[in-house]
Amino acid sequence: MNRGWSRLYHPAPLTWAAVLLGWVGVYAAYRGSTLGAVFAAFAMLAGTTAFFRGRELGRLRRQSLRTAVEAAAARNRALTALRELGGRLLQVDTLEQLFDEVTRAALDLFLAEGAALHLVVEEGRFLKVMAARGTYSSRLGALIPSDRSLNGWVLVHDRGLIVDDLGADPRSHPPEGVPVESRRGLYAPLRSSGLVLGTVMVSDRNQGIAYTEADLELLQTLADQVAVGIDRTRALVDRRWTAEALALKNQELVRATRLKSEFLANMSHELRTPLNAIIGFSDLLLTGGLGPVEGVHKEFLESISRNGNHLLGLINNVLDLSKIEAGQISYTLSPTDLRQAITASVTDTASLRTAKRQSVAIDLEEGPLTILADGQRVRQILFNLLSNASKFTPESGHIALSALRTRAPLPVPADRADDRRAMITRDAVWIAVSDDGIGVRAQDTGKLFVEFSQVDSSASRRAQGTGLGLALCRKFVELHGGTIGCESIFGKGSTFWFILPVEGPVRRQEGGLRTSDADRLERGASLA
After folding, report:
1. How many Å apart are CA 374 and CA 481, to the nearest integer?
2. pTM for the structure as a whole
3. Distance CA 26, CA 32 (A)
4. pLDDT tens by residue, 252-297
5. Which of 80, 92, 504, 513 has the maximal Cβ count within 10 Å?
């Protein structure tokens, strides 16, 4: 009803006219005029007409209000259904579950007799029924030609479609022998990243009500929500597949690492047995136990002994590294005097410096330098650092070794494997080995302390080695709960330092952190 007609139809003007005519009729009757009866009749007619018009207007307003309430209820129902669907789509793990939830929601949302979801397959030549409910349940998995179907028309034109008579629509080509069970249909495209990847459709409301543009907008909203769900579910599937692939790769890497460690351990054992015999017999000959050895024969025997010991040291390094990687390394914690360890290490490496006429200076802080550690491993760390300094320091160079007590933040074990390690400040001893050798370039510092990695890996490098010495130092220092590092100026020299906690490595137990039991450690308990 337009606004002008509403004003004419409204009973208020007639009511006022009836009142006015009534008063005129009363006045005419009072004057004795016969027009009083005529005006009274017109007043009654106007009042009666106003009454019936008022009742009809009330009925129309009640009907309009009821329609508005029903429309609002339908919108609320649709919003509730879409919200519930959004929640369910966040819980599904597979595309099959997603498609099934969508068709069920479409069936409930439009009170339809049938619903289906189609996706493009075979390079766009067909649409496959991925999910179907109601009258379309029997078509699940069927292929629909894109060029001879209503779904294909929606796919090609990328817009929704309302069909009032599916059987008479020329764009509809049902399969031969399959009767058209639906009359009305509603179609909307599924889009993802700007591409149409399928369609969703419903057919025949239970009450036979025709579909409207508002219904098409609602179905398109549902389709857009589905496209987001498809992208999310595909991402979850890809992530799950990637996680499974990574887990499989990790298993293979763990197995390969275990086999490598077992191989290295076995080979190291097999190599050490004949080497010990070679070194033992060469030393026996050099001592003159089997008769005097002089001249070139003595030089050859010394070369055999020297190179045999060098090779034995490399094999021991490989064996230690393989044990650490396999988690089989053991170390004995006991009170260790670092003064004695430093002095012994300097003595053990004296021949290396003597051959190159290098000098060494020792600067130790006065007072106790005793820590809870594995003395053999500490001497191995010092031996490797001193050997490394001598190797990269030119002839007549200078090496310095210093140690002092301090307090430093050191790492403690994390609660879980994926947590970052925390740091606590503890009493510690700082030890540094400095040299005036060739130094290390800034871009090469990342290669230090890495297994089988060397700053100069070329075949023409001056210093030979396997690149295991510094890596083992880092492993042993970290096993003791300490930290290691390097400061260097290329062409000027390097300082390799490490820090060891006085009370030994920190262990975790329920209730918090603790250090190892002192009494048990003093008895030389072996910890793995």
Report:
1. 12
2. 0.48
3. 10
4. 888 887 777 777 767 767 777 788 888 888 888 887 767 777 778 8
5. 504
Residue 280 gets the label, from left (phi > 0), alpha (psi -120 to 50) or beta, of alpha
- 500, β-bridge pairs: 429
Distance, in Å, from the CA atom of 81 to the CA atom of 508, rounded to the nearest integer, reads 52
Find out whether 392 and 493 touch, Cβ atoms under 8 Å: no
Distances from the Cα of 379 to the Cα of 339, 386, 489, 502, 512, angstroms: 11, 10, 26, 16, 32
CA contacts within 13 A on the Cβ side of 133 = 20
Token readout for 228 is: 């987001």
Query: 3-class secondary structure for 275-335?
Result: HHHHHHHHHHHHCCCCCCCCCHHHHHHHHHHHHHHHHHHHHHHHHHHHHHHCCCCCEECEE
Alpha helices (runs of H) in 349-443, residue ranges in sequence order: 350-355, 375-391
Place of tokens 């068709």: 103
pLDDT of residue 58: 72
How far apart CA 155 and CA 147 sit, in angstroms, is: 10
pLDDT 10s digits, 88-122: 665 666 778 778 877 888 887 787 888 899 988 88
**Structure tokens, 431:** 């030890």
Short-list 451, 522, 478, CA closest to 329: 478
The per-residue b/e assignment along 167-201, b for 16 or more CB within 10 angstroms, e otherwise, is eeeeebebeeeeeebbbbbbbbbbbeeeebbbbbb
Q: Each residue of 51-69: pLDDT tens digit? A: 676 777 777 777 777 766 6
